Amino acid sequence: MKSKILGLLILIAGVIALTMPGQSQKNGSIAKEATHKPRELPIVDFAEKPSTDAHLLSKQKLKASRYDRQSSQPIQEAYMISGRTWSTDWSKDLTALPFPQSDVVLIGGVMNSKAHLSNDKTGIYSEFAVQIEEILKDTMKDSTYPGSTVCLERFGGAVRFPSGVIQKYETTGQGMPIVGQRYLFFLQRINDTDFSIVTGYQLDGEVVSPLDGAVVEEGKGVYPFDVYQGSDVSTFLQTVRTQAKRKPSS
User: Fold this and answer.
1) Where are the domains of the chain?
2) Which CATH number is associated with domain 41-245?
3) What mean pLDDT, rounded, does the chain reach?
4) 161 vs 40, 86, 123, CA distance in Å?
5) Could you point out which of 2, 19, 85, 220 has its C-alpha 20 to 30 Å from the C-alpha of 158?
């Protein structure tokens, strides 16, 4: 009887030993999937009518002109095509914290977003209204200040056609800020109130999530920003503020 019980215990132990690696692998897979952050692209209606405000329309056309001539063919609804992805080496010369390539570095919350087509409808870009919480760098002293709102731009977005079909236009490795979330942004100045996004980091919760990099590419590719994925927000911001105080090397 004792030998039967002993045999049964050995069998149970063997089954547990065999199933544990598989369970561990499964949990690892889940953890990896959890780091993927799908892009939430602002949407523009293809049939959207232009503003009747002449000043606003003129301002919008000036912005849109920066995204003209993106293709030999204008954006149009296409059968069995969900959109287009631009693949560039935009991150090639960037570091994880690209202070040298940034005119302004700030912390702020995204208030709203909107996509727009270029004037010739070959390109699309997205705008984000951001309320500033803290300024860490500004090459033009006092041009930005906490409490004010700036407009950030980034190439890409989604187009909704009259049929209801939505086509996405993205850049490999680039994400889009989410309305209602708080970010650290690295920016290049376009004019006094408009800036283009170099990169950024989402700061909501206890851990850092890069705006760009492998986190939006389902783990594909290696980007400098990946190093801070999952970092503690407080520790990360301490590192950023310390680096912001350093004088640029000559």
Assistant:
1) 41-245
2) 2.40.50.120
3) 84
4) 18, 21, 15
5) 220
